[in-house]
Structure formats: C-alpha cells, structure tokens
From TrEMBL:
The keyword Chloroplast does not apply. GO terms for biological process: sulfide oxidation, using sulfide:quinone oxidoreductase. The lineage of its organism: Bacteria, Pseudomonadati, Pseudomonadota, Alphaproteobacteria, Rhodobacterales. GO terms for molecular function: FAD binding; hydrolase activity; quinone binding; sulfide:quinone oxidoreductase activity. Residues 150-263 form the FAD/NAD(P)-binding domain. InterPro entries: BLH_phosphatase-like (IPR005939), FAD/NAD-bd_sf (IPR036188), FAD/NAD-binding_dom (IPR023753), Prot-tyrosine_phosphatase-like (IPR029021), Sulphide_quinone_reductase (IPR015904). This is TIGR01244 family phosphatase. Pfam families: BLH_phosphatase (PF04273), Pyr_redox_2 (PF07992). The keyword Transit peptide applies.
Amino acid sequence: MDLRKITEKLTVSPQISAADVAALKDLGFRSVVSNRPNGEGADQTSFEEIRAAAEAAGLETRYMPVETGKVTDEAAQAFGEALRDLPGPVLAYCRTGTRSATLWALSQAGTRPMTEILAAAKSAGYDMNGVARRIANGGRTPTDTGDAKFDVVIVGAGAGGISVAASLRARKPDLQVAIIDPADIHYYQPGWTMVGGGVFAAEQTAKTMGSLIPRGVRWIKSAVAAFEPDNNAVILDGCRVVKYDRLVVCPGLKLDWNAVEGLGETLGRNGVTSNYRYDLAPYTWELVQGLSSGRALFTQPPMPIKCAGAPQKAMYLSGDAWFRRGVLKDIDIQFMNAGGVLFGVKDYVPALMDYVGKYDATLNFFHDLVAVDGPARTATFAVNRPDEDPETVEVGFDMLHVCPPQTAPDFIRVSPLADAAGWIDVDQMTLRHRSHDNIWSLGDVMNAPNAKTAAAARKQAPVVAENIAADIAGRSATAQYDGYGSCPLTVERGKIVLAEFGYGGVLKPSFPSWLVDGTRPTRAAWFLKERMLPPIYWKAMLKGKEWLARPEPLKVAPDRGRPPG
C-alpha cells in the first residue's frame, strides 16, 4: 500500500484491495472511505469487497464516489462532514489518491489557512494549486469573471518590487503595471543595524507604502494566496484574481521566529532582542547601553539568511560601544554561528578577525539556536561539528541578540514556481523562471546563489526590467546579473569593511582601492553607509535611477540550466 498521511486524522492512498484491510486495522485505522466509482478500472476491487473486509475487521466505511476531474463543491462539503463524523484515523482512497486529497483540500477551505492546506497536500505528494482558486473562495467554484488584467504584475513592494516597477516605467512609460502587497509601511531594513548601534533613529527607516509606489503603477493592497502560472493568474486572499502578461515575484522572505522554541514569547524582554525587526532594534541599543558586565550572545542560523553579515555587525557595534565605555573587559562576548566560517568570502576575514580579537569575542561555530528560556536567561544550541557526535548545550546570557531562521514565504514554498527547497527557480543570469518564460524573480526569494541584500536587489531590478522590455519587444534576454551583493560590515562606529562580491566570491568593488579598500576598515565606507546609502535608496533606487546599477549586457545565451558561478 502507498499510504500518504495528510493530517493526524486523514491518510489517502491509491486503490486498495480487500486483503489490505487487515493491515490497515493493524496500523490503527478505524475508518475507510472510497472516492472511486465502482467499475472505473478493469482490475479494480469493488467497494462491496472492501466494505465486507472492513466490517469483518471492525472498521467503519463510506462510499463517496467522485468521477475523475469532477470534484463538485457538494462532494467536498460532504467529504468534510464525513471526516468529522467518522472515527479516525481515516483512510480515503481513489485510483491515485488525488481525488481524495482534493476533496480534503476543498473541505478545509475557510477552516485552515490556504498555505497550510497546500503544504499538507504537497507533503503527501499532491499538488493542489489547480484548485487554489476554489480553496481561496471557501471551497466553492468561483463565478466571478471580472478579473483585473495588467501588462506586468509584481508580487511584493519591498526594495526589489518598487525598484523594478520604477525601472520598468522608466523604460516603458505606457506599460500597465500593478504591485501587489498588503503592507502599509515600507522599511529600509539595512538601517536597522544602525538603529541597534545607536546611530539611526528607527523612524528614519520607515515610510508609508503609498508615498513610494511609482506614479502610474496600480497598488493592489492585498495578500497573495496562490499562483496559476498556466492561466497567467495570481489569486489573492478572498479569491480575487489578477491576470498578467508577465509576472515578477519578489515578496522577500519569511523570518521564522517560531522555529526557535520559546523565542516568540520572550522577544523584546528578558534581554532578548534582534535587529531583524523594526520594533526590536531600539531595544538592542537599550540593552547595549544598560549592560556593564555579564555575557552577551549573538546568534546566526543556517544559511540562507538576508544580509549574512548582520548578526556579526550587531556584535561589532555592541563591542565598540562597550569598549568606548570602558566596560568591555567585564563582558563576555560569544558569537554562536550555525555555520563553519565567520564570513563566506575569505578576502574579508582577516580584517574581521582583527575586530574579533579587539573585542575578545569567542567564536562558536556549528552552534544552532534551538530554544530560549527568557525568564531563566538561558539559550539552548544544537551543536553539530563535522566528524563529531551531535550534542546540545545550554548557555546563560545577560543579553541575547538573535538572527532568526529564514525561509521563503509559505505561499511561495507551496507554489508551482518553487524549486525543491522552496525558492523561486530562476536562471541565475537573466533571473527568468526556468519553467515559465513570462515570469521573473529577484530579491531574497529566488534561488540564485548570491547574497540576499538590498544592494543585490539594486543590481537585479534593472536586469529584470531590461529583460522584460526586451521580451515585450520580441527579443531574447539582453542583460545579465553577475551575482553582485554588498555587505557593509560595521566593525566599529566610524569604520566599515565594505564587502562587495559576486558569484563564486569574486570581488566586485564599486570604487577604486585608493578611495575605499573593501578588505580593510575605512571611514569612507562608513560615510557611504551612514550618509549616502539611505538617500540613494529612497531617492534613486526606488525611483528607477540606476546609479552604479546599469545592467551588464548578456555575454552568453542562457540554456535554462545553471551556468557556472
């Protein structure tokens, strides 16, 4: 038997035989539902045979046949009612299990989130995106035909989404463009490190979304529920449908605070903070100012994460503040890194190690934060060093700065646009989807092997805009992304190691070495970070002005496979 568990109560499977029923009884099943009409296949065991075997074994049964491709709203409702009435666990079967999974998915609409329904079915091997519109409509077949339609639809109004919208409008002012995003506020997230270091005020990093949407671009203030790429459609919460000629997907990523046991309950108190959240970055600075002795932990989860240098930036700025106050000697700084290196591009490590030494910080590699007890001020780490037995250690703290685990958003991971790991599957040069030629992606959500930073999105947006413009004109892709990312590592107040690199860790400096030597801490890089980058972000990048971000011409034709990086 091919049993596929969807929930604790329901498992689905392809056709079973009467001989399988005894095994189902031994496995703990208490009910069997048939969703396959009798006589559908020449070698099919009839429901009467299944029922006789089930009654002999003490199992309840229901015969709820559904023809292939004809799962009605009424059948889904009846399936849900049967699932509530029957003792569980329940085994439902049809020819392949797909009809049973579909009936379950539709029956759960309105009682479970869309992403949870799609994810549960997907984990059992069934893709329910084909009925996503019905799920979004409460399990009922939509009758609305008044779909909105645009030349280009952009999912996500973060750094990538607004920038690509502005770059598209700069190239093609008459293009009908829509951005879908439910947020009221847009954040300059690179500034939160500076907020946590007492340099910026939090208010400097936020503006209303409406003030930033480019003129002429329609803002659809809604969340996305699912994608129908074969129908060129995006399904919104509430089952509204937006259709497109071309689609750009850039909703950012999900900070998975709940992946660490106890973290959500103690954030913002008990000395637990994070610069990865707007409302918590000021608390970081409050803790730094208030700490004169004790242990400060700074954590970094497994990759990928946005701005891989941010966890240690918090450590350096905190260490510098304690150094300036003369209390550093009484503070034990511990950097708890789930990975095995301080920074992924080796050219920048020597300068960073100088500051690790200056702040007398202890580097603990292969330490992954798994639990926090705020009131007890203890953090638990899973330690998985190569060639050693795994272990778990508890470490006490007076201050804990957490970088949370990060994933693609739920509605992306369960979509037909995602790769096996849940990220949007793109060609890393053109940023075009590998399977759907009228879809592009940029920013943190796609699977190109680059650093997930705002600087990367600044370079990617013109590439996507250029290639969409070429596609509209009937030409092949003309621009390529070289993997550029930038990480201004704030090693002390007034100095930064400006890491700039592309695919494969190749250095990609924007300035001559006499002005900014990125492998060394410089005041010029600090001036860039503090004074120049915020206005460049607000007034250039989000306005479609491509300063130092003009796309490179495509050097080789993409082959839809992964080019060398």
